[in-house]
C-alpha cells in the first residue's frame, strides 16, 4: 500500500510510460535476483559431493579388505592407484566430451558408473575384481566429474566470481569427505565393509535426477548469459555442440599445451600436489594412524576434519585468486604443506594430542587450495581450451597421486613404517613451490579464440 501511494505521489512528475518502465525494471530485477548460474553451481556442488563419496571409501576399507581376503596392502593400493590414474587421465577427454555431448549427459552416466563400481564390490572374490571395480569403473566415473568439470562450469556460467566459485566447487570434494568418511568408518566397523560400499552406490544414484533436471549445458540453452557477462556482448561459448571427435580435441589441446613452458611447470607442480594429498594422506593416513595405536574410527574422523577445514581454505583460496597473482598463492600453499608433512610422523600417537589437532587445521586449510589458482593460470595461458588443458594438468595430479598411493603402501610393506613416505612428500612440495614461481609467459597462440580446436558444427 505504501509503495502504491509512493508511485501515485510521483506520478505528476513522470509520464505514464516512465512509470511503466520503472515498474517493469523493478519486476525484472526481482525475478532475476537469483541468477540461473548459481542454480547450476549448486547442482554441480551436490554432484561433486556424490562423486566424492567413493573416494572416501578406500582409505577406510584397506584394513577390512586386508583382514577378510588376506590381500597385501600393496595389492589394495594398486587398485587405488588405477582409480587415481584414470580419475586424472579421463578428465581432459571428459571435458572435450562435455563440449560434444553436453555436461548433463556426461555427468549423469558418470554417476551411474560410480554407483556400479562401488555396488559391485560386494560380490568380489578375487583381487582382479577389486582392480576392475575400484580401479576401472569408479576411476572412469569419477574422472568424468573431476576438476575439469569444475573448470567447465565456471568457464561457461561465470565471468564474475570465477575464482570464488572454483573454490566452492573444489571444496565439494572435501565436503563429501566430511560427510562420508565418518559414516563409512562407522558402518564398516558395525556392519562390515560391504554396507558402506552400497551406501555410496545409492548416494551416487540419488544425484542423477538433479543432474538431469537442473544441470544445463550453456546459459544460452535457457535464454540467459553467464553471471557477470555483458548481456549485449557476443557470448564466448556458443550453444551449439562442437563438431568432431572429443578424443581428437583433447589430444589436439594437449599438443598445443605441451609446446609451452607454463604447461610443464603447472603439470609438474600439480603432480606433486596429488602425491602429497589424495595419494598419500587421503589413502594412507588412517592406516598410518592405526599403526600407532589410534582406532580407525578416530583416524577417519580426523581425516574428515581435514575436509572440513579444506572447505574454508579452498573457498578462501578462490576469493584470493580473484585478487592476487595465482603463482604467489601456489608458492605459499606448497611450502606450508611441505613443512607440515615433514613433522607429521612425530605427531602420531594412540590418542589425539593437541599437536595433531594443529596439523589437522593447518593441513586442512591447505589441502586442495591449489586448485583455484591452477585453474586461473590455465585459463590465463590457454584461453578457451583452458578447461581441457586443466584436465591434462589434473591428469598429472592423479598420476602423482597414484605413484604415491602405491609407493607408500609398498614402503609400509617393506619397511614396516610410513615415515619415509611423509619425508619424501614434504621435500617434493618444496620443489613444487619452485616450479610455481617460474610460471611466466603469455597465452599460447594456439589457444586463441579462433583456434581450429574450437570449430563448431
Nutshell version of this structure?
The chain is mostly helical and 457 residues long. The chain has 18 helices and no strands.
Would you give an account of this structure?
It is a single chain. The protein has 457 residues and is mainly α. The protein has a single domain, classed as Growth Hormone, Chain: A. Helix content is 76%, strand content 0%. The protein contains 18 helices and no strands. Helix 9 (162-191) packs antiparallel against helix 10 and helix 16 crosses helix 17 (386-415). The protein is globular, with a radius of gyration of 23 Å.
CATH architecture: Up-down Bundle
In angstroms, what separates the terminal alpha carbons? Answer: 54 Å
- Any idea how many domains? 1
CATH class: Mainly Alpha
| Low-pLDDT runs | 1-31, 235-239, 445-457
Q: Rg, please?
A: 23 Å
Q: Largest sheet, if any? A: none
**SSE pattern, N- to C-terminal:** HHHHHHHHHHHHHHHHHH
Amino acid at each position: 500500500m505504501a509503495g502504491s501511494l509512493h508511485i501515485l505521489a510521483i506520478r505528476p512528475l513522470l509520464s505514464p510510460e516512465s512509470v511503466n518502465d520503472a515498474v517493469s525494471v523493478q519486476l525484472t530485477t526481482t525475478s532475476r535476483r537469483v541468477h540461473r548460474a548459481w542454480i547450476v553451481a549448486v547442482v554441480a556442488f551436490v554432484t561433486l559431493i556424490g562423486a566424492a563419496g567413493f573416494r572416501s571409501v578406500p582409505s577406510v576399507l584397506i584394513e577390512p579388505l586386508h583382514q577378510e581376503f588376506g590381500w597385501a596392502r600393496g595389492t589394495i593400493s594398486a587398485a587405488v592407484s588405477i582409480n587415481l590414474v584414470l580419475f586424472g587421465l579421463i578428465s581432459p577427454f571428459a571435458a572435450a566430451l562435455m563440449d560434444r555431448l553436453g555436461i548433463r549427459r556426461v555427468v549423469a552416466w558418470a554417476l551411474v558408473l560410480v554407483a556400479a563400481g562401488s555396488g559391485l564390490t560386494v560380490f568380489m572374490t578375487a583381487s582382479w575384481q577389486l582392480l576392475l571395480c575400484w580401479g576401472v569403473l569408479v576411476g572412469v566415473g569419477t574422472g568424468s566429474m573431476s576438476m575439469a568439470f569444475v573448470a567447465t562450469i565456471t568457464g561457461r556460467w561465470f565471468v564474475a566470481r570465477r575464482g570464488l566459485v572454483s573454490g566452492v566447487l573444489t571444496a565439494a570434494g572435501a565436503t563429501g569427505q566430511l560427510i562420508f568418511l565418518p559414516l563409512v568408518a562407522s558402518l564398516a566397523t558395525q556392519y562390515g565393509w560391504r554396507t558402506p560400499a552400497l551406501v555410496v552406490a545409492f548416494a551416487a544414484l540419488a544425484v542423477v535426477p538433479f543432474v538431469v533436471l537442473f544441470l544445463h549445458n550453456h546459459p544460452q540453452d535457457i535464454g540467459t548469459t553467464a553471471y557477470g557477462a555483458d548481456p549485449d556482448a557476443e557470448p564466448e561459448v556458443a550453444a551449439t555442440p562442437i563438431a568432431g571427435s572429443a578424443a581428437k580435441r583433447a589430444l589436439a589441446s594437449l599438443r598445443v599445451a605441451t609446446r609451452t613452458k607454463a604447461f610443464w611447470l603447472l603439470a609438474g607442480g600439480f603432480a606433486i600436489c596429488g602425491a602429497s594429498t589424495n595419494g598419500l594422506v587421503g589413502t594412507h593416513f588412517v592406516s598410518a594412524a592405526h599403526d600407532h595405536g589410534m582406532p580407525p574410527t578416530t583416524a577417519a574422523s580426523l581425516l574428515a576434519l581435514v575436509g572440513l577445514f579444506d572447505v574454508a581454505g579452498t573457498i578462501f583460496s578462490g576469493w584470493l585468486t580473484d585478487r592476487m597473482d595465482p603463482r604467489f598463492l601456489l608458492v605459499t600453499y606448497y611450502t606450508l604443506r611441505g613443512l607440515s608433512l615433514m613433522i607429521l610422523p612425530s605427531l602420531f600417537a594412540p590418542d589425539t594430542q593437541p599437536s595433531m589437532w594443529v596439523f589437522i587445521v593447518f593441513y586442512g586449510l591447505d589441502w586442495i587450495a591449489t586448485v583455484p589458482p591452477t585453474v586461473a593460470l590455465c585459463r590465463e595461458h590457454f584461453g578457451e581450451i583452458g578447461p581441457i588443458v586443466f584436465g591434462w594438468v589434473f591428469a598429472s595430479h592423479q598420476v602423482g597421486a597414484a605413484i604415491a598411493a602405491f609407493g607408500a603402501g609398498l614402503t609400509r610393506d617393506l619397511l614396516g613404517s610410513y615415515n619415509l613416505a611423509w619425508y619424501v612428500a614434504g621435500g617434493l612440495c618444496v620443489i613444487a613451490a619452485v616450479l610455481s614461481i617460474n610460471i611466466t609467459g603469455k597465452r599460447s597462440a594456439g589457444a586463441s579464440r579462433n583456434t581450429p580446436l574450437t570449430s563448431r558444427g
